[in-house]
Design goal:
The complex is a heterodimer.
Chain A (H helix, E strand, L loop, with lengths): L1 H16 L2 E2 L17 H5 L5 E3 L5 E3 L9 H5 L7
Antiparallel strand pairs in A: 2-3
Chain B lengths: L1 H16 L2 E15 L23 E13 L4 E12 L10 E13 L2 E12 L6 E2 L8 E17 L2 E19 L13 E20 L4 E12 L8 E13 L4 E14 L8 E14 L2 E14 L4 E17 L7 E9 L7 E11 L2 E10 L3 E13 L2 E12 L3 E13 L1
The chains are: A alpha+beta, B mainly beta.
Amino acid sequence: MKKLILIIIFAAFLFLAGCDKVENPQFHVDETSCNECGRCTQVCPLDAIEYGENGKAVIDQTKCNQCGKCITICPQDAIY
Amino acid sequence: MRKTFIISLILAFWIAQSAALTNWAQFSLNYFTTDAENGIDIVTGASQDADHINTKGKFGAQYRHEISGNLNERISFDVRNNAFFSEKSHELRNSYLYNEIKAKLTYRFQNTYCKVQLNNRYYSPDKTNYLNLSGVEYDTQQQMVNNAIVDFQQDFGKFGFNLFGSFRDLEYKYAVPEDDDDRDHDDEDEYEAKSAADYDLYSLGMLSYRFNDRFSIFARGCYKDDLNDSSELNQNELGGGMEYANRFDFQNALSAEISYYHLDSKVIDEVFTHNIYSEIRYTKRFYFPLTGFISVKNRSVFDAEKSEFLRVSTLLRAHLKFSYLTENLLDSYLLAGGKYNPENNGSLVFGEFNQFLTHNIYLTGGAKLAFDLYSQYSGKLEFYLSPLKSIWLKTEYTDFTKRFGQNIISLGSTLIF
């Protein structure tokens, strides 16, 4: 059962990773890498980043315009 | 809202008086130089005001302090403050002056977890880069952000329940012409600054069921309420998925997740309505000095109009670390890794080393090459007076896609008491 679940997840991942990309990609935060330093919240020109339920940065997609400042500033390279 | 800031400070100090504390403090003096010139509309936060970007050096300082402790066996707290100042506009910050305080109180007992947190970010009132707030016609400058968070988690046997709420208040200023009639304004118009606030409420509810220690399923709903009149930025998310986590042995661990959520928003493109998130992370400890992990994440959408799946963002990250000279205060190590993120041009490779020199002196160096964005090189010399006290000298040079470079030299001290 466990192996089956893992195979399903892995297959789904491979399938999705092989698709075309959307016209305007979004930025998201890799929560396992984020160290809550807050640099991205300071540099965002749209005030689109705040802390989520586990203390890690979260990007509010309704405000973000994909300017890319946060991806450059993040010392953990946690934004993708 | 300054009251919130003062109340959180008083609360923090009251808590700090009542318990055994662990303090971590770091102070540094910084000197910045840049070869940036006029008119660079950059991706790094540089002001576009030529007066504020000059090639002369400028000084700055940063002070970080973290206090943590336990009031009793169930209640713990954590207070963090980060103050930053620079003489002139800094290419990697929005403001000359910045202070952030985060105060968190946590209750944990058996199957119950509760967290209350207050955050405050204060910016220099008149010297902050302009914001572009949705729905606000005029240029705005952020003054302060207040954020109150409540998080509650409860397990009932195999069921888990989570409620989260976050209220945000952005205080900002905007300039409007004093003579605000229908005619065209010119540079000679006098402007007056007005104050305003922008509010947001984020809430989340999640229910999970754990089949065993490794496998669980969950359903979750998120709602964002843009508390302003327009409600343009409201957002609804509803979905669910499954998680797997297994530590096979001391050397191998695997975790995976796949989830779907339906997004409903007026301002986000319709293509993002059906979202799929998948993640696999494998950690491998080869033998003691050599460790590493590989992690892949993918966010995709299903375009219902074209009946096809599309990638939103993919992340592949791999790290490998080799430790040696482990008998010293700190391990010496070599670290190398990379990140692959084709959709957002965020791919990079990096390398880092930490080398014990002599008498508790360490040399750290690193290079990071983000192909489409920047390259960064850093070096740090640190002397440990004791295991809990150190002084250091650091330099960091960043080349932003060969358009301009910035160097920061820092002299600092880190203290734990």
